[in-house]
Design the sequence.
């Protein structure tokens, strides 16, 4: 019976020390709490690029107000491009740039296509993306 009690005591000690560790971490320990970071977005840009990475088209949109995004926030953006030229346009990647109150780019995200997307004259395409804080 004594042989069985010792492993149980050892397991109990491990559980107690584990609980103490979890409790200390949940209380924050000695580390100071950081204030949540917020990002202010007031507009966005769509940038279309060709196979060589050269910008073929860009446009800026203002949101009409400044929106504040905190941790775990997300934003879906949908931008429509219409080819008003007389030639087809090949797009191999695009970026959506988020701009702050001062018009400066605060973050960017985008997609590259395996095969170029061809937009013929008069045709429209919607480019979208989700940004997460």
Sequence:
């Amino acid at each position: 019976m004594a042989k069985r009690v010792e492993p149980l005591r050892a397991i109990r000690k491990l559980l107690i020390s584990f609980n103490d560790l979890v409790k200390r971490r949940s209380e924050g320990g000695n580390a100071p709490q950081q204030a949540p970071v917020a990002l202010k977005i007031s507009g966005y840009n769509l940038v279309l690029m060709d196979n060589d990475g050269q910008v073929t088209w860009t446009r800026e949109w203002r949101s009409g107000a400044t929106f504040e995004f905190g941790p775990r926030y997300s934003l879906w953006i949908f931008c429509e491009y219409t080819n008003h030229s007389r030639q087809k346009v090949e797009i191999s990647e695009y970026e959506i740039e988020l701009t702050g109150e001062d018009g400066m780019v605060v973050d960017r995200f985008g997609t590259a296509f395996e095969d170029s997307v061809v937009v013929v004259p008069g045709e429209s395409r919607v480019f979208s993306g989700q940004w997460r804080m």
